[in-house]
Model the fold of this input.
Amino acid sequence: GVYRPFCQFICPFGLLSWLAERISLYRIRVSPTRCNGCGACGAACPTNAAKDIVAGRLFAADCYSCARCLTVCPHDAIRYCRRLEAAEAPAIE
Done:
């Protein structure tokens, strides 16, 4: 199912939150060397954003920064970092 379909597809605040996420100073970053694709983060994520981020999709589902993916990852492959760190720093190893 879709998490809060009204919020994602009808409510104008959904568009504003999507725009805010795109310009946010902080991002979720996944280390490709630590991630083994177990799917724990995707199962914990209410919006399917974690699945999209792990898959490297350009237009991922909205991430509300709930940190559920961070707390369930058994390999410590996910971190929350500043946008510039996410773009420039090497993945956590």
Remarks:
- Residues 26 and 83 are 5 Å apart (CA to CA).
- DSSP finds six helices and two strands in the chain.
- The helical segments are 5-9, 12-23, 40-44, 49-55, 68-72, 83-88.
- The longest strand covers residues 26-30.
